UniProtKB/TrEMBL annotation:
GO terms for molecular function: methyltransferase activity. This is Class I SAM-dependent methyltransferase. It comes from the Bacteria. Gene3D superfamilies: Vaccinia Virus protein VP39. GO terms for biological process: methylation. Residues 48-145 form the Methyltransferase domain. The keyword Transferase applies. It holds the Pfam family Methyltransf_25. Keywords: Methyltransferase, Transferase.
Length: 191
């Protein structure tokens, strides 16, 4: 079985077990991942954080773009998916943490991210969890950092605008379903 098919099956199994946690039946397409990462300077980043890494659709492309001395901290709550990530990417720049995005600050310590890549299914989370994670995002970025967020609806856009002075939106129409891509910055003059 090729890797793409195996990933789709793993993903579908994770969705069947916990649909609200996974929030999609397919991993993000390569095209949407590229559209998303094109909205930030990944090669210039020292620290990239990924939330909801799944089977690694974004992880592989982030590693391909990252500098040799940069680091990627990837959080994934599902232990089976976190194990897939650890086994797949033999790259010393990557640290996979099996934990909720709610606890990101504990794993970051005093560090802050240049780029945060987030594929969490915010619209299927219970409101308290959604609010806690979204509210934490500005505080985990460096002042010139950017949070890239992919969603399958524009519903969280107003919450993002409440949290970030600059929110740019793009649509990646060929993803299934079409994806809304947000680039959120702490300063209006960036990007
Ligand atoms: C829509 S999938 C995206 C997976 C992958 N990044 C992609 O784009 O194909 C959402 C992922 O977030 C994970 N997840 C859900 N809630 C989480 C949480 N609180 N903390 C960390 N990961 C979480 C799910 O297990 C799932 O792998």
């Amino acid at each position: 079985m090729n890797q793409q098919l195996a990933d789709r099956l793993r993903f579908l199994r994770a969705f069947a077990t916990n649909p609200r946690q996974v929030g999609a039946i397919l991993p993000t397409s390569r095209l949407a991942v590229r559209d998303m990462l094109d909205m930030a300077d990944v090669p210039g980043a020292s620290l990239v954080v990924e939330l909801g890494a799944g089977t690694g659709s974004q992880t592989g492309e982030v590693l391909a773009r990252m500098a040799p001395d940069a680091r990627l901290l990837a959080l994934e709550i599902d232990p089976r998916l976190a194990k897939v990530l650890e086994e797949r990417f033999d790259d010393p720049r990557l640290q996979v943490v099996c934990d909720s995005a709610e606890n990101l600050r504990e794993h970051l310590g005093e560090e802050r991210a240049d780029v945060l890549v987030c594929a969490l299914p915010f619209t299927s989370f219970e409101p308290g969890l959604r609010r806690r994670i979204l509210d934490s995002l500005p505080g985990v970025l460096r002042p010139d950092g950017v949070a890239l967020i992919i969603q399958y609806s524009p519903l969280i856009q107003s919450e993002l605008r409440r949290l970030f002075p600059s929110v740019r939106r793009r649509i990646s129409p060929l993803n299934v379903p079409p994806a809304f891509l947000f680039a959120c910055r702490l300063r209006e003059d960036q990007g």
